[in-house]
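Hypothesis: this fold can be encoded by more than one sequence.
Test: take the structure tokens below, design a sequence, compare later.
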């Protein structure tokens, strides 16, 4: 008997019929002889609707009360799902994050998991029950308050439960069949990956891939959790995210895979990720002396903005001057520009430009470490498509470029084709949201 943790997102439990479909999937897993623990998100767009409601009654909702409000969405889902399972003749017990022993930091809206004490969950499993846990939420021991985990919180909940319970696998369900070489909504010929390394998945998630969230992938890597990304709408085997020393379960079962499925021992490129959520700020005419960049980014840090890419160039127009460009989350750009403008005289720069109509395209692959010419393929593809590059950033297994937002979709398709990632058949997206 295996212990399987399953996570179902908002699109998977969007309405009563969807909840019954998910309940059947869970019951089938139980009938197969497995213990099952489920982490569930709020139904459909419930969280967004609750945020809108909060904004309608208070321009700046109190963080503690906002967490109390938002955590109710997952409680609705878990109770309804448990009821649906009971109606199918199986015992199910639902638990809030605090009841499940999900201990977090006190930060409302962005709490991080510090410990998991799943005593009640183990008792329920020992009694033969299916366990349903509200995702996205936890409890702080010092303040005694309910907290929420922020973006991707339900994925992180599922992985944390899998680690604490020593589960055999953590299955993350969405409306696509697994992890693809690109977003199949933008690149219809994207190819499903049978497996991907946790290192590659971290880069893909950090650079815009939305099937798995970076916090969940990082937690899984640290705690040795095997993730299986698959679809709520089919029984197809999906994509395994393999940590260090892990083997694809298909190979472990002795299954024979075609040459196309097996691919290279270390594929050159695992995928192409896109991100529309950033803005670019360029500080023009910064004094080219030691400490200038430090002053700029010290000020930016005070705003709480998270910087992504940074490029510095020697300005040809003015001797002794340099230009610094950086990207950051779009919602943070306005405050950063305001603070930089206020301190213009002290910082000594000449001008400031902000652009929120950009897109980031990233090519990720472990094979880049040992293969030359990877960047040339990218740049040749963009040149052939007539797409201009505004910034470039690299890591050991990633190349990222900034292009105009209007060019991002075409860039993704052109680059995907250039690396030979196109499939002969179009990918299927079952519900349309990716979650």
């Amino acid at each position: 008997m295996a212990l399987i943790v399953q996570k179902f997102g908002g699109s998977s439990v969007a309405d009563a019929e969807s909840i019954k479909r998910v309940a059947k999937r869970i019951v089938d897993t139980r009938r197969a002889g497995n213990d099952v623990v489920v982490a569930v998100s709020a139904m459909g767009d419930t969280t967004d609707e609750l945020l809108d409601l909060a904004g309608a009654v208070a321009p700046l909702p109190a963080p503690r009360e906002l967490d109390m409000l938002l955590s109710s969405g997952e409680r609705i889902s878990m109770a309804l799902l448990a009821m649906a399972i009971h109606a199918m003749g199986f015992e199910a017990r639902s638990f809030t994050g605090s009841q499940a022993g999900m201990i977090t930091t006190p930060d409302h809206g962005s709490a991080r998991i510090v410990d998991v004490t799943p005593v009640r969950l183990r008792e329920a499993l020992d009694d033969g029950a299916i366990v349903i846990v509200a995702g996205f939420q936890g409890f702080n021991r010092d303040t005694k308050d309910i907290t929420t985990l922020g973006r991707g919180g339900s994925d992180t909940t599922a992985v944390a439960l899998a680690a604490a319970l020593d589960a055999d696998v953590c299955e993350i369900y969405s409306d696509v069949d697994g992890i693809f070489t690109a977003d199949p909504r933008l690149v219809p010929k994207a190819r499903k990956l049978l497996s991907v390394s946790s290192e590659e998945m971290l880069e893909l998630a950090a650079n815009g891939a939305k099937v798995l969230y970076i916090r969940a992938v990082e937690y899984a890597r640290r705690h040795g959790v095997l993730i299986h990304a698959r679809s709520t709408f089919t029984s197809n085997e999906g994509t395994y995210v393999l940590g260090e020393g892990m083997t694809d379960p298909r190979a472990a079962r002795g299954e024979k895979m075609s040459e196309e499925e097996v691919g290279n021992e270390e594929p050159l490129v695992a995928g192409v990720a896109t991100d529309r959520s950033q803005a670019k700020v360029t500080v023009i005419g910064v004094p080219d002396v030691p400490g200038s960049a430090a002053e700029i980014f010290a000020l930016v840090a005070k705003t709480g903005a998270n910087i992504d890419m940074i490029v510095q160039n020697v300005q040809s127009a003015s001797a002794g001057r340099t230009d610094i460009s950086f990207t950051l989350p779009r919602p943070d750009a306005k405050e950063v520009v305001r603070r930089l403008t206020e301190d213009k005289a002290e910082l000594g720069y000449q001008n400031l430009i902000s652009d929120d109509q950009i897109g980031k395209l990233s090519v990720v692959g472990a094979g880049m470490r040992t293969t030359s010419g990877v960047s040339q393929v990218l740049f040749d593809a963009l040149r052939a498509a007539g797409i201009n590059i505004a910034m470039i950033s690299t890591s050991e297994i990633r190349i990222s470029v900034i292009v105009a937002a209007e060019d991002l979709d075409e860039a993704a398709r052109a680059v995907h084709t250039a690396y030979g990632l196109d499939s002969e058949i179009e990918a299927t997206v079952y519900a349309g949201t990716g979650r």
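Residues 259-265 have pLDDT under 50 and may be disordered. The chain has 14 helices and 20 strands.
Hypothesis status: open.
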